[in-house]
């Protein structure tokens, strides 16, 4: 007996299918034969699969955008945040030395502790900083000197189009047997990696590889498997909804929502604000040092 949630999914997806392709499955064949009992359920599964695949493509596309923007954000702004923290620590240390107040000393020690070298800091700072301090590129950026810009890995429109087409054709959810699902999962992993690198050339090669692959055989499923399939699709959609919500509500996702059409401009605005804060702290430090 299917769950109430699945039964609801059957009604909804079947209603959607009636308006699109496959709607003819609801009619009695011209020869007068009765419609198979599983036919309406199969139509519901196909509609749910298509909807889930489109949703998963949208979530993965946004995930790559968030990941790439996060990398650019760290490369461009990371050195400025580090410089601000260093200036704050030095200001607090001077104040503590002058006041000899235990609370001032505690605040200064905490600020300095946050700047202590950590294992793997170079990896965390994406090549801008190691245990000995800022790299020359980071120093150049802070002093408005020429510096090699961060690597841009945002996928082009062509790469996005190729990715969507491949995801729709080769998605593992379209497999009818375990062997075929494993083949699709391995292939989609490579597609996702190429898309994350923003490589349209790799995606074109993968499209040619898929087109030359083995012809798929469709094996009809019994009603029990169709009900289980709808249940799985429902659970998968709930998981993807949670992933999408976490991406959107995270710091980087929230920033992207502020300027979806010009994220680079947003980075420039934040960089200008940070440069102003660095100048303020440097002036304050200079005044204390006099």
Automatic annotation (TrEMBL):
Residues 1-42 are annotated as: Disordered. InterPro entries: DnaJ_domain, J_dom_sf. SUPFAM superfamilies: Chaperone J-domain. CDD domains: DnaJ. This is J domain-containing protein.
